[in-house]
Specification:
There is one protein chain. By secondary structure, the protein is an alpha+beta fold. Among the domains are: 207 residues, no CATH class; 93 residues, Immunoglobulin-like, CATH 2.60.40; 93 residues, no CATH class. The protein is 34% helix and 19% strand. It has 16 helices and 24 strands. Strands 3, 10, 16, 17, 18, 19, 20, 21, 22, 23 and 24 form an 11-stranded antiparallel beta sheet that branches. A 7-stranded antiparallel beta sheet has the order 2-6-7-8-15-11-12, with no helix packed on it. A hairpin with a 2-residue loop joins strand 13 and strand 14. The radius of gyration is 25 Å and the shape is globular. The N and C termini lie far apart (92 Å). The structure holds beta-L-arabinofuranose and zinc ion. Zinc ion binds next to helix 14 and helix 16.
């Protein structure tokens, strides 16, 4: 008996894995932050009241949930939606709802999720396989050409079996964290165990055609501490770049593997190429694996890839993936406005990745980019009504040329509906991006009014942030330790407040700002020493201490690197983190005829009753009138109204412009 016990203990020790490595900077997760913010809380409320129920209802109406039901044999039928990856929309909706439950407890929603999860459980095959298209139709007849006649064989090209799994794992972890329930987590674990049995160095080899399983596996690993999941995530990443494409996938048009980021081993990739959502998820997955294993080669690669994106391939709004064919990154500095693609999912993926880059390096430049995306190119994806969306995010709509491919208005849903539930899940998890910690250092990254608690040496430290950001630059942080103690509070000084429109110089301010940020503690001004984008205060903090940050908020002109052809000779306008645009509605019906001369003042005003309350900028433009021929040009002065880019297309269709010529040149004569 004694021997058996010893053996059992030994066995447990061998099998009990203790996670020793992870991100050095630890985020305060969404479930530990209470929001009170005037900007985000109403958005999260709309997300809870409208977007999430809308996404769930659409998943039900369009047959996405029915696919699970048919696979579960709860009803007869054939796979009834367009894409085998439609399962993932259900998972993303569950993930979104789970985050939201944390902030807004809702028994009805919780039960609804349980009933959906029960159907998902029944759709899972006994060995853990979960992919409704094949369970319904094992040989793939209804998805001809997409999923192949056997499990996994078309994963690289089309099937998305591993993609669906990745979204399942993310949803399962969010649901478990928010509710403590294992119903979805157990489904995910069973599926991951099957995938681990099938794939590996001595087993089947493939690459996930659409990355995301790497992130999902890393999350599962953190929750379960089962290192098979971490090894599998790394295996899938390391499989990239090994396939010989020559002549094999000729019909795809993406023969060299760039589309899938499969053209080189991941550790050798330096330039962001191919499908932008896949890339963003992959870089985020590499960051996770780098953090969890200490792999330096991954770090070197993602550091370069970040430079590639942030210094050459990102729109001013934070949007990425300039080219619509292949939903992909363009070449360096290829950032056309009239044909911009900038899929909302790609912006979501960039938020995930930039957050992880911060967690690896502790540098604020990653949060600068994350903030740029959150306040511009991400929330532009959803209308104020919470139920109409952009899949691609135009940078310009003009009635004369070029914008034919751009989405000119928002849609209620899409046949390929990846974006709406992706918006819902990121929106609901925004509270998780505000704070972080490293040892006895607290990081304040975003200025979103909220409250949280840290713990050092068994001491509890409450932190409360109050602001009217992004409209006002005054941010007050109350630091309340349970007893007087020494620790560090590091507050991000946004790059834009220090004269950097973009940390990489892809965009810069046209003029240097003479105002600078200032910080005081309990009313006493502090020296502003900014390191890695933070101002840090190590001191004995006591209950009631108040740190006040004031950021300069004047509206400023931005210019792009001269190599961005489409923005040459043009300026855009930014105030704080918000990028502005003009809509025809506010500008006599047109924007493509407008010039913004250098001398025109930019005047800011907050309008409470306009588009749910937002800051508007007015100025004086020159409007071009072309009389009879292009040689007969007249301009007239005209009032210019600019609104935040995220709020465009809430009042019907019309022209829209972010970049304005500074003067008349051959290239900007394109309007009536
Ligand atoms: O392939 C799944 C999703 O559909 C991608 O992330 C989107 O870009 C769209 O193609
Ligand atoms: Zn999408």
């Amino acid at each position: 008996m004694k021997q058996i016990i010893i053996l059992f203990v030994l066995f447990s020790v061998v099998n009990s894995y203790s996670q020793t490595k992870d991100y050095p900077f630890v985020p305060v997760t969404f479930n530990k932050v209470t929001l009170s913010d005037n900007f985000w809380k109403p958005k999260l409320q709309v997300n809870r009241d409208v977007t999430i129920p809308f996404c769930i209802a659409k998943c039900e109406e369009t047959g996405r949930v029915k696919n699970f039901s048919i696979a579960a044999k709860l009803e007869p039928g054939a796979f009834c939606t367009n894409y085998a990856f439609d399962d993932s929309d259900v998972y993303k909706a569950i993930e979104a709802a789970s985050y939201s439950l944390q902030l807004f407890p809702d028994k009805k929603l919780e039960h609804h999720l349980d009933s959906l999860i029960a159907i998902v459980a029944k759709a899972q095959e006994p060995d853990g396989y979960l992919y409704t298209a094949r369970t319904i139709d094992p040989k793939g007849g209804t998805q001809l050409g997409r999923m192949g006649t056997e499990r996994w064989v078309k994963e690289r090209e089309h099937s998305h079996e591993l993609y669906n799994a990745g979204h399942l794992y993310e949803a399962a972890v969010a649901h478990y964290l928010a509710t403590g329930k294992r119903n979805l987590l157990d489904i995910a674990i069973k599926n991951a165990n099957l995938i681990d049995q099938v794939f590996g160095p001595d087993k089947m080899h493939t690459i996930p055609g659409h990355q995301v399983i790497e992130i999902g596996l890393a999350k599962l690993y953190r929750i379960t501490k089962d290192d098979r999941y971490l090894k599998l995530a790394k295996f899938f990443l390391d499989e990239r770049g090994k396939f010989n494409y020559a002549g094999k996938l000729s019909t795809d048009g993406f023969q060299n593997g760039e589309y899938w980021q499969d053209h080189k081993p991941v550790i050798d990739q330096r330039e962001a190429v191919g499908h932008a959502v896949r890339a963003g998820y992959m870089y985020a997955g590499m960051a996770d694996v780098a953090a969890l294993t200490g792999n330096q080669q991954y770090l070197t690669a993602i550091d370069s890839l970040w430079q590639s994106v942030a210094s050459k391939k990102m729109y001013l709004t934070g949007g990425v993936g300039a080219a619509g064919d292949g939903e992909r990154f363009g070449k360096n500095y290829e950032l056309p406005n009239a044909t911009a693609y900038a899929e909302t999912c790609a912006a979501v993926a960039q938020v995930y990745w930039n957050h992880r880059m911060f967690l690896l390096h502790g540098e604020a430049k990653y949060i600068d980019v994350l903030e740029k995306i959150l306040y511009n190119g991400f929330i532009s994806g959803v209308a104020l009504d919470g139920k109409s969306f952009f899949y691609s995010n135009a940078m310009e709509i003009n009635n004369v040329e070029g914008s034919v491919e751009a989405e000119r208005k928002r849609s209620g849903w899409f046949s390929c509906a990846c974006c709406p539930p992706n918006i819902a899940r990121l929106m609901a998890s925004v509270p998780g991006y505000i704070y972080a910690q490293r040892d006895k250092e607290i990081f304040i990254n975003l200025f979103i009014s909220s409250k949280t608690q840290f713990e050092f040496d068994k001491q509890k430290i409450s932190v409360t942030l109050n602001s009217n950001y992004p409209w006002d630059g005054k941010i007050v942080v109350s630091v309340d330790p349970s007893a007087k103690s020494k620790f560090t509070v590091s507050v991000r000084i946004p790059g834009w407040a220090m004269n950097h429109a973009m940390p990489t110089g892809l965009y810069s301010f046209a003029e240097t700002n003479t105002e600078s940020p200032s910080v005081s503690i309990n009313g006493v001004n502090q020296k502003l020493e900014v390191r890695n984008g933070y101002v840090s205060f190590t001191r004995e903090w006591k209950k009631g201490d108040k740190l006040e940050l004031n950021l300069p908020m004047s509206a400023r002109r931005v210019v792009a690197n001269n190599q961005v052809m489409d923005d040459r000779g043009k300026v855009a306008v930014q105030r704080g983190p918000i990028v502005y645009c003009a809509e025809g509605k506010d500008n006599q019906g047109a924007t493509s005829n407008l010039i913004l001369p250098d001398q025109a003042n930019l005047v800011y005003e907050f309008k409470t009753d306009f588009l749910n309350g937002l800051g508007v900028i007015t100025s004086s433009a020159k409007a071009i009138k072309i009389e009879s021929s292009q040689t007969d040009i007249e301009t007239k002065s005209q009032a210019l109204t600019l609104i935040p880019y995220f709020s465009w297309a809430n009042r019907g269709e019309g022209e829209m412009e972010i970049w304005f010529p500074k003067r008349i040149t051959g290239i900007n004569i394109k309007s009536k």
